[in-house]
Amino acid sequence: RLSPPGPAPARPTLPSLAEARVAPKALAAPVFAFGRAWVLLATPGPGLPAAGPFWGVLVAALVGGLLTVAMAALTAFLAGREAYLEKQVALRTRALTESEERLSAILDSVADTVIMHDARTGAIVQVNEAAATLFGYTPEEFYADPDLPFKVVHPDDRQLLESLADPGVRPGHAMVIRWQHKDGGTIWSEHRVTPIYDDRGTCLAVEGVTRDITDRVIAQQALAASEARYRSLYEAAHAGIMVFDANGAVVDANAEAQRLLHSSLDEIRGKRLTDMSKRWFVREDRTLFPPEE
Per residue, what are the HEC states of 82-101? Predict the structure, then answer.
């Protein structure tokens, strides 16, 4: 049996084995393994006394030597295996790091803001450089405060942002959300949220992509205001105005045109001038043409 390990002593020589008996009829042999010295104790069997102490010591030495070789081989195998695993871990770590660097480079080249949350901890794990342009806050500020998106969202749209965490929301569904820039301005955005799952269906992260549509919204608002002004002037005009499509059919007519033609817009819409009977035409004094004319 092997005795408990102790400090590595100096390697004993073969002659000292005969003196290493710790009990009558017990033989001792050194075993060196795992960088330490062990002592193998062997109790002779019935045939050993007849063979003499020399043969007992020789057998113990041979057994100890074989165990030493076996332990050395096992130690070398385990050391090689450990070195191989360490190399594989280093290679995979380097590949993962390079992949993350490529992903970060791609995200930083995208004009849209990308923010990724850890679904388990709520921490922000990825923010691209576009966030600084859109919100005025650096990626480092987002990493330091995972609740920053909920702090910069417009108060009237906070509920919309919170609703995107609802499992019933379709992944990638776009919502128009307003944000407050660091300088105090209002930003209009098209915001999409996509959950990321592992092979077992567990949600690992939630990715939010925000596209700045402020210029588009401002242009739409300006167009709507212009159309409202045009409609006001159009309806208030004292002259009859009609709008025709490319085929010559009426698509709109102001109030004065409807009064002059004694017809509602529903009666006029879709009519062509060639389809209209004379009841839609009046003289210069605004009197109707008689049917016979």
Answer: HHHHHHHHHHHHHHHHHHHH
Alpha helices in the chain (DSSP H): 48-51, 53-109, 130-135, 139-144, 148-152, 158-163, 214-236, 255-260, 265-268
Contacts of 139 (CB under 8 A, 6+ apart): 127, 128, 129, 131, 132
34-35-41 Cα angle (round to 5):
75
Amino acid at site 131: A
Asked whether the beta carbons of 205 and 160 are under 8 A apart, the reply is no
Q: For the chain of 293 residues, list the mean pLDDT of each consecutive stretch of 10.
A: 48 45 51 58 53 57 69 77 81 70 62 86 87 90 91 91 68 84 92 86 86 92 91 88 89 88 86 66 62 54
